[in-house]
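task queued by scheduler; priority normal; single chain, no ligands, no partner chains; default sampling; output format set to structure tokens
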Amino acid sequence: MNYKFLYTAANNYEAHFIQGLLMRESIESQLLGENLSIAIGELPTEVIQVDILVPKNKFNQSQNIISNYEKNLSLNNQDKKWKCKKCNKSNPFNFDICWNCNK
């Protein structure tokens, strides 16, 4: 079966999560680079990323699944931001003071 590159996951956890999303739709996938995390202390961060491949005939359906996944990620991250009352800048949820005005 011919496979096509679909997505680069940040790590094994994300790769296996996406693989599960694909499996729910009966889409087979292959993960490339998942075993490199064993050497994490010695390798740059981009090396621990995992490539996800899917059959060419399931690529379009797989892209829709990835689009929904990324849309949900961005919606979740938007909820975790707060806006500074003084300067109106957006701040990550884990900032206690504004990065712009320090208030």
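post-processing summary
- Helices lie at 12-24, 59-79.
- The longest strand covers residues 3-9.
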